Amino acid sequence: EPEVTQTPSHQVTQMGQEVILRCVPISNHLYFYWYRQILGQKVEFLVSFYNNEISEKSEIFDDQFSVERPDGSNFTLKIRSTKLEDSAMYFCASGPQIPGTGGFEQFFGPGTRLTVL
Amino acid sequence: LAKTTQPISMDSYEGQEVNITCSHNNIATNDYITWYQQFPSQGPRFIIQGYKTKVTNEVASLFIPADRKSSTLSLPRVSLSDTAVYYCLVGSISGTYKYIFGTGTRLKVLA
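Output (structure tokens, whole complex):
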């Protein structure tokens, strides 16, 4: 069964450093997402990506964050200068739905645990 | 996006049927209702999705009354491995289909 994969599973970094979290969405999906979950809290939407551009982003997704689909298969989240409060589990998700054709379902990856020291 | 309200936690015993109800009074015409399951340190996993009436798959059933202001996820004969957080999500078929997660219902299945 196809699945979303994410690397690395755990990333430890120093405050102020740049990190890139990588995701390989399911191959024929059209929509891509990043969510994060701070330990013990709820899952929060960060950004959605469709047709090679950001389609929506939350207040969390400020100028320190960027996303890219560099090669048609990978989908990356970059945090330019990490802060302590960026420590969280980051989930990538992808969805197959073509707009206007009905319901939708997102498939989530296993997550990358980011620890900022 | 419609706000959802669901119980914070529930306990059940193995073999019992569990029903988790979610309230979404402000659901819009274009909104679908989706339920996800999340185990600790894992990504949310899709369980079931519906628009109206009843939907059943190999894992669960979803009951949606005619006014669509609430929905009930039914898990038949739960086992210890069903212990997880269950999220009710309401989202539109238009736009970017982003999910807004609430705090979910923490289900604990006891032996």
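The mean pLDDT of chain B is 91.
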